[in-house]
Amino acid sequence: MTVAPAIPPMKSPSTSLLEVRGLTTVVEGDGWESAAVDDVSFSIARGEIVGVVGESGSGKSLTALSILGLVARPVSVRSGSVRFDGQELIGLGGRELRRIRGARISMIFQEPMTSLDGAFTIGDQMIETVRAHRPVNREAAETMAVTMLDRVGIASARQRLRAYPHEFSGGMRQRVMIAMALLLHPELLLADEPTTALDVTTQAQILELIGELRREMGLSVILISHDLAAVLDVADRIVVMYAGRVVEVATGEESFVSPLHPYTQGLIRSKLSLRDRGRPVAVIEGQVPGLGHRPMGCRFATRCPNRIDRCITVEPALVAATDGPRLLRCHNPSAWVEP
Amino acid sequence: MTAPPQIGKQDAPILQVEHLTKQYAARHDLLGRVRSRVSAVDDVSFTMRRGETLAVVGESGSGKSTLAKLVVRLAAPTSGRMLFRGIDVGTARGEASRELHRRIQIVFQDPYSSLDPRQVVGRIIAEGLHFSGLDRAARKRRVLECMASVGLPTNMVSNYPHQLSGGQRQRVGIARVLAADADLIVADEPVSALDGSIQGQVLNLLKKLQAERGLTMLFITHDLSVARYMADRIAVMHLGRIVEFSPTERLFEQPVHPYSQALLSAVPRFGRGDGKRIILSGEAPSPIDPPPVCRFAGRCPWRTDVCVSGDPALIEEVGPDHSVACFNWRVIPADSFGHQAAG
Amino acid sequence: MTGEPLPPIEALETPTVDVEALKTVEPGAGGLVITGRRRRGILRSRSATIGAVIVAIFFVIGCIGLALLTIPGLDASWKDQNLGGALKGPMYDGHILGTDSLGRDLLARVTVGVGVSFFIAFVVTIASLVLGVTVGLIGGYFRGPVDTFFSAMTDVTWGFPVILLAVMFAGMLEPGFATIILAVALLSWAGVARIIRGYALSLREREFVGAAKAIGIPSWKILLVHLLPNVVAPILVLASYYVAVTIVIEAGLSFLGLGVQSPVPSLGAMLSEGRNFIRLSPWQTILPGAVLAIAVLGFNLLGDGLRDLLDPRLSRPQG
Questions:
Q1: DSSP secondary structure string, C210-250?
Q2: Which of B63, C33, C103, C117 is the most buried (most CB within 10 A)?
Q3: Is B196 within 8 Å of A226 when comparing Cβ atoms?
Q4: What number of C-beta contacts closer than 8 Å exist between A and C?
Q5: Which chain A positions have a beta carbon within 8 Å of B269's beta carbon?
Q6: From CA C282, how far away is CA C274, in angstroms rounded?
């Protein structure tokens, strides 16, 4: 008998579609480099929606870009592994990466205009996308485009193919963007703040749509957002990031009903305390530490109400919390008390 | 609920807005003549009492930001007028005009764009003292006072904006307004560009300053939970019009206009599975040359023939201090959240 | 639920990593590593450094050249002819870089030529910047009829051929410094104006300008205090490109005889003189040509480097 290998074999037997292990992405500056994404691990199963939540500087967007191999100097992936359906993506050549990106993994961004070319009709752009990856003729590609536009709720899709991106409103543009991303039936969708630029009424529609498409197409979705409340309803699991680190992983339900990390608790408490006009909002004092100014111990220590001496000197590890499969990075968690 | 602090009903209104309209040229013909217009703000009237906070809520394109610009005179109205403590803002000239500028100040949304990147914090705040007539030493003292009031360490006086965090920048913007000694502060989405953990700090600061100094605040926001926390009264705007005007708690308890109801139900709430969102089908119609019918009719689940026969005005008195621009408000149940569940 | 008492409030500040102090602290704390590769100021950009060195060298040469040109008694160095020793290569009889077709010392003539070319380029650049920045800022900030008028003027100027204007001036005045400076400056401001107008258009929509307006700051003051300082970076970049372009235009006009007149040398005039002897003595043409090319390269490198350096995205994050 041999000792079981520490790293699982190439073809992972689990249902996990994407495995991120120890991902570390650094930003190089003038005489320094800092890990903007620091030893981040999580996985996503087929058909699962994972919300990655964090404020600016948490490294959530860089995590997504690192997974897709879309970082460029002065940012680079320093270490770690990203396995997509058993295949390692880190270190993969540009050509192979491009074949996976777009076809099997696709991405949508906060501002659809940055990914849509204003000089071409959306029909042209969609047909080009299909034909770049599939050996089909124009008519077949057009049919695929119409079907998908129809699916995301664009009325009279065939006529709208001839429209330019600027002829759509913000919400409709985001729908076009989603249609384009799903055109080739990818297995994984990375959505970076897909609703942030939209109005509340439209936000609800887009999140609803993503939820439906997941059910229909068995799609896995990584939903990146700064707003915990926005993704709570639609995500199965929530990964909370702070200053480059994962600090808590829990189901959507748990993150709200019983958040464990003082940071998650602070965010929720602050939102909930908006209900009571008579009192000041509950706040997390201080601010997110910048890249060059992170504390040596726990990165949240400077703002944490539960801080003990150990928090300042020793950074806690991300370990299984006492109840169930939840993960938590905290020396001194306290039970959640709803305000 | 708590009564708004120290407002006597006998207080004269601080700001009266009467039939304010702002139109922009939407299309020009070949000769450059205006072919069609967009009414960003269309016949808006309201009155603000000293010391109160009025929140204006609505989606993008509702005209709420244009309204903010009109009130601080960053844009000139096409028609209508504003009276600030009885003085007509539009016709004020010279000394009176400068005084009005000083008294009506704005806090912007984007703390990155609202501070000049080439000026240090002290100079940015001192700009608010431009017409104060203070000498150098007095100005410096005043700048440091203002920094202390907003919770900025005074050693940041010679820092550049890029050395500050988003929350600190927004505090600088607020300090600039305090330096000008404003009475009426227009806050245009002051926290929506800030991180979640910072928003509460800035809201608390605004509330504290308002209580200390008796400021009146016109609070523009798309975030209803923030509006609820900050405001005494709320005006709901839709395509340039105020469609509902109500005391805050009343609006949240019984919103009357179907658009207000939809907005309220779309707020992401903690607590899942209530499944009672009104998902509005489609989006707001184009504001270019709108026909003289109710502008919400296209998206309204309660539409009847009367809605496309004319344009409802904000005259229906629903209750004390509560009015709505809707023909059918009597037949729409206040809890229509539940009746219009998502498909 | 907290197990232990909170540490005193000072502890909030102490554990924060200071980049400087970190070298003595545990490495890797907070995910930060000091790599030690560190360059300051202009040295952060290699092209800016090389460009700045070239420009500095030429600046010194140019100053010496202008001294030779203007200080009485020194003009013999580049004026004195010696037909016996004409068209010689480098190191001929004390002429380190050789002589031209009239036996004049090429080192002295190139030095003066650099001085003349640079002088014209600097004066033209400064004039174009002053005019262009004024027109661009005012037009872009105020919009309306002022902008329409300024833009029309800019467009007409933009399309006007510089040679035609130089010929006109040469006819009215006479060829020389003034002709060249007037002809080039009167046209080249238009490019500056276009670019600066673009900046002004975007700056006027920025909220800090709105804040100043809301306070009631007069427009001229907003232009001076808020707009001008924010276009300094593009102005610096433009300036270095404009010097380079003007050196080339001056060379072209002098080559055609519309510029400075013999015996005063400029790089273009020297090229023109050397042209007739290019088979006999290519050196006489190659030398000013090479000097011209290196000078232009220097300014372009400086401009590229400045553009990179002044790009805020490359500056250090703040905590």
A1: HHHHHHT--HHHHIIIIIHHHTHHHHHHHHHHHHHHHHHHH
A2: C117
A3: yes
A4: 102
A5: 229
A6: 8
Token pair in block for residue C54: 């070239």
Q: Which residues of A touch B227 (CB under 8 A)?
A: none
In 3D space, the residue among C303, C290, C215 whose CA is nearest the CA of residue C251 turns out to be C290
For residue B117, give the nearest of C216, C225, C230 by CB distance.
C230
How do beta strands B34-49 and B87-88 pair?
unpaired
Place of tokens 């963007």: A177
| Complex ipTM value | 0.81
Q: Do A284 and B224 touch (CB under 8 A)?
A: no
Separation between Cα atoms, residue C259 and residue B267, nearest integer Å: 72
Give me the sign of the Cα torsion angle B255, B259, B262, B268: negative
Global model pTM greater than 0.90: no
CA distances from A200 to B267, B268, B301 (A): 6, 8, 18
CB atoms closer than 10 angstroms to residue B300: 19
**A281, A274 in Cβ contact below 8 A?**
yes
Report how far residue A43's alpha carbon sits from residue A24's, in angstroms, rounded to the nearest whole number: 15
Distance separating the N- and C-terminal Cα atoms of chain C = 31
d(CA A204, CA B59): 13
B142 Cβ contact partners less than 8 Å away, ≥ 6 residues apart: B129, B132, B134, B179
Contact assessment for residue A184 and residue A103, using Cβ atoms and an 8 Å cutoff: yes
Yes or no, beta carbons of C316 and A30 under 8 Å apart: yes
Q: Write the pLDDT tens digit of every residue in C145-204.
A: 999 999 999 999 988 888 888 888 888 887 788 888 998 999 999 999 999 999 999 999
Residue ranges of alpha helices (H) inside chain A are 60-67, 94-100, 122-133, 138-151, 157-160, 170-182, 200-217, 228-232, 252-257, 262-272, 309-313
